[in-house]
């Protein structure tokens, strides 16, 4: 089993947070300073509610260079983590930048969801509703144009 498969197995294991962190750290030690290993270590801590430990690992992973899909995941997860730590303005800036890149990426709706949450946290609930409804509209079986139009009006 290769490293990625072993990492997926660690995430799938029915274990507690501390044991998962230990498993992921052990795998990450095989690839010191590797961006993906740093990202996985951050995610394990984030999942366990250890935001202050996750934040610098996410930042290191982003600086070290991730493939595009993991980069977007890391931005989402870092922004969520720092929002939880009270760094609302930075969270908004990260998510806004990612959101404004457009709807082409596979994680755009996830970016929109976390951007909407950050907007609500920042006291901009109407703008947050607009972002969320614009992301939802294309998935509706009917009323897509109407919901998208109303969402744009909210903004």
Structural description of this entry:
The protein is mostly helical and 155 residues long. The protein contains 9 helices and no strands. The chain has a domain at 3-90: Tetratricopeptide repeat domain (Serine Threonine Protein Phosphatase 5, Tetratricopeptide repeat). The chain has helices at 3-12, 17-28, 35-47, 51-64, 68-84, 88-99, 108-121, 125-136, 144-154. Helix 5 (68-84) runs antiparallel to helix 6 and helix 6 runs antiparallel to helix 7 (108-121). The longest helix has 17 residues, at 68-84. The mean pLDDT is 95.
Spans of at least 5 consecutive residues whose pLDDT stays below 50 are none
The helix-and-strand class reads mainly alpha
Radius of gyration: 17 Å
Give the name of the CATH architecture of the domain at 3-90.
Alpha Horseshoe
Broad shape: elongated
- Helix share, percent: over 70%
Descriptive tags:
mainly alpha; Serine Threonine Protein Phosphatase 5, Tetratricopeptide repeat; 9 helices; 74% helix
Offer a quick outline of the entry:
By secondary structure, the protein is mainly alpha-helical. It contains 9 helices and no strands.
């Amino acid at each position: 089993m290769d490293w990625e498969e072993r990492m997926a197995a660690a995430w799938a294991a029915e274990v507690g947070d501390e044991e998962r962190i230990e498993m992921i750290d052990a795998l990450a030690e095989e690839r010191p300073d590797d961006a993906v290993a740093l990202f996985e270590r951050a995610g394990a801590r984030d999942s366990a509610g250890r935001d202050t430990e996750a934040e610098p690992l996410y930042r290191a992973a982003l600086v070290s260079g991730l493939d595009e899909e993991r980069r977007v995941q890391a931005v989402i997860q870092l922004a969520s983590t720092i929002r939880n730590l009270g760094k609302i303005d930075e969270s908004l800036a990260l998510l806004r930048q990612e959101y404004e890149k457009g709807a082409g990426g596979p994680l755009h709706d996830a970016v929109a969801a976390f951007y909407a949450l950050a907007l609500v946290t920042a006291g901009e609930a109407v703008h947050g509703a607009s972002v969320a409804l614009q992301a939802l509209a294309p998935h509706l079986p009917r009323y897509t144009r109407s919901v998208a139009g109303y969402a744009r009006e909210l903004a």
